[in-house]
Design a protein that fits this description.
Strand content: 25-35%
Helix content: 25-40%
Number of helices: 12
Shape: elongated
Distance between the termini: 33 Å
Number of strands: 20
Largest sheet: 6 strands, antiparallel
Structural class: alpha+beta
């Protein structure tokens, strides 16, 4: 059984994949119906044993719920199954003759068949507390009528709408943000107070009820202003889509749901939300991201300048020890510059370390300039690493590879293998050479070793060990680090 249904329902319901997908689309967009009518919606599927089981539940975000408890997985009471079966068999909406009393309140029940490909595949109960209040007044009749229209579309197989902008994305308008009802010509027949306020902030003057919305909005957009190509059809209610309008720094997010009755157009429902503050914050974040990338770019350029100066100084040095020290300093600065170059290409302060290290590995082996021919090999994957860890890890591995080439393979041909194993935030790296190996009792006291040990303990929260390579030839340096989750 498909995972679209809860585990408590799987195994007792037999529905083809196409019907399950239709139910999944419905559940992605039925919150609109619940919010318009301030009703609980419960999806009931008919089991192989002939009973109805609750497969999904949507509570209204615009008022109190009827069901405080979780109903998914429960069987429908036998007294209610007759009306549910009537709706399923007839394909018609069935309304209970009298409210159902649940202790201290009365609940009006409506049974809506879910039609797909002309077949009823499930039943939705719309359960509304009698006398529901929203903001101290009875629920607006126009909102109830819009909810009724959507329920009728469900019962006629016209809702959900294929290709509609369903789901809650950042800034997607909801019923509580603002509701507009349009007729077939795109004329506003109803606008909630929040919707009126949204269009007034945009610059539309006066009451928008009775005016053609598309004409009213386009008339206030300055000439030569780029607009979304879908704006007109959304404002006319002709297309089930999401668009955005901006005038003078005010951003409105608009979502259109075309209404149909008996196969013909019957106007549209428009949801509207003022997302000006959201877009302003996004712009601030984009500016900060661009600034961060520019900083990394400039740091990379500055480091490359320092690296070039060190290289020039090394060439002019007459003392061999001084030349070697300057060359090592140049390599270390170049390694850090490589990481900054990668950071300047993205906005999330993370890098694909496999790409970074492939460059670092080639550079470290080339700069070491051994007498023999040395090849490098990378096995496994490092994955995505955050900026702080990437700097330390690149420096450590460059030091280890350079050390392996200069000391392990100083007078012979050989191979340096870097093997990475990533498990979440835990990283284990083996740097293996097939050179002379460590002399027992050798103390690791060089500058490179001290740099490596300090970075591993301080920045990578890990450990490092030197041991003989497998087979007894060469050295295996084992680095264990704790990285942030990618």
């Amino acid at each position: 059984m498909s995972s679209l249904l809860p585990s408590s329902v799987r195994g007792v319901v037999s529905l083809p994949p196409a019907d399950l997908d239709w139910l999944h689309q419905l559940m992605a967009d039925w919150q609109v119906v619940a919010d318009l009518s301030v009703s609980d919606l419960v999806l009931w599927v008919h089991t192989d044993s002939g009973r109805f089981v609750a497969a999904a539940h949507s509570r209204p975000a615009t008022g109190a719920t009827v069901h405080l408890e979780d109903v998914i997985g429960r069987r429908m009471p036998a007294a209610r199954e007759a009306m549910a079966l009537e709706a399923l068999m007839s394909g018609q909406i069935v309304v209970a003759a009298a409210p159902e009393w649940t202790g201290s309140s009365a609940v009006r029940e409506e049974y809506v068949p879910v039609i797909h490909d002309s077949q009823a595949i499930a039943v939705i109960t719309r359960e509304t507390a009698v006398g529901v209040l929203r903001g101290g007044r009875i629920v607006d009749k126009p909102l109830e009528e819009l909810a009724d229209a959507l329920c009728l579309m469900i019962a006629q197989g016209a809702f959900p709408i294929n290709g509609a902008a369903t789901g809650m994305r950042h800034g997607t308008p909801r019923v509580g943000d603002g509701v507009v009802s349009l007729d077939d010509d795109g004329v506003v027949t109803y606008a909630s107070p929040n919707a009126q306020s949204c269009f007034h902030r945009l610059g539309v003057a006066g009451d928008i009820e009775g005016c053609q919305l598309a004409e009213a909005v386009t008339s206030i957009i300055p000439e030569r202003t780029p607009v979304d190509e879908t704006m007109a059809v959304v404002l006319m209610g002709r297309q089930a889509w999401l668009t955005e309008v901006e005038v003078g720094g005010v951003f409105l997010s608009l979502r259109s749901i075309p209404l149909r009755k008996d196969g013909a157009r019957a106007g549209a429902l428009l949801l509207v939300r003022d997302v000006s503050e959201i877009r302003r914050r996004e712009q601030v974040l984009m500016n900060k991201d661009a600034t961060i990338r520019e900083i990394h770019h400039r740091v990379k350029n500055n480091l490359q300048t320092v690296s070039a100066l060190l290289r020039m100084q090394a060439r002019r040095a007459t003392n061999e020890e001084t030349r070697a020290a300057l060359t090592e300093a140049e390599r270390r600065v170049g390694t850090i510059a490589t990481v900054h170059a990668a950071l300047s290409q993205n906005v999330d302060e993370k890098v694909d370390f496999d790409e970074v290290f492939s460059s670092v590995l080639r550079s470290a082996a080339a700069v070491a300039t051994p007498t023999g021919q040395v090849s490098t090999r990378l096995e496994g994957e490092f994955g995505v690493v955050d900026a702080d860890s990437a700097q330390a890890l690149a420096t450590v591995l460059a030091e280890l590879v350079t050390n392996a080439v200069e000391h392990g393979l100083e007078d012979r041909d050989g191979t340096v293998t870097v093997r990475a194993q990533r498990d979440g935030g835990r990283l284990t790296v083996h740097v293996i050479d097939d050179g002379a190996g460590l002399v027992p009792g050798t103390e690791m006291t060089g500058l490179g070793t001290r740099i490596v040990s300090t970075l591993v303990r301080g920045e990578l929260c890990g450990s490092i060990d030197w041991q003989p390579a497998p087979g007894g030839h060469g050295t295996d340096v084992v680095l264990r680090a704790q990285l942030g989750e990618s």
